[in-house]
Amino acid sequence: MSFTVYTKAYSAPEYNKKDILRYAGVREASEDITALLEDALSEADGKFTYKVCYAEMPIFAGENELDLTFTKTSSKNLQKNLEYCDSIILFSATVGLEIDRLIARYSKISPARALMLQAIGAERIESLCDFFNDDIKKEKKALGKFTHPRFSPGYGDLPIEIQKDIFRALDCPRKIGLTLNENLLMSPTKSVSAIIGIGNS
Known about the structure:
By secondary structure, the protein is α+β, with helices and mostly antiparallel strands. Helix content is 40%, strand content 23%.
């Protein structure tokens, strides 16, 4: 198993307020909700760190098993996602622990504010993943290759247990300060691990 793990840090992506409200379950924003959103954004701004660790590795398709280099899986959904791919980008991303601390602080004294902070955290990690995906897409397009949509542990029939292999392969705690507990929960919670398929055009 020979591959190089890289790390990347990003500047803060622009906030997508529509997505934040969607993550918060808001269909129509009243003046009060809009004010809560703006106030929560003001408090959360500057509390994020945008970090990714990743590696590219070849994959080999067998009859009933997919060899991903870092592990093997019989996930049919992942096999379909990686059809026509000959390598993958394996990555983990996090926006840091400060948002978790803010959410915990408000969870008892202001559930509505805690919910809005949860939604902001969700939008931040998705925006980070989108930025990273766009970088990989541009890089591979320049080489005449294409990328598939990212696929995470727990999607479809890809078991969540594969997180252990991902963390071992990428050395997430040392690279970006991301840990995995015995219940397979990540800390910081606003974090994502995923696989991006790479194929030839």
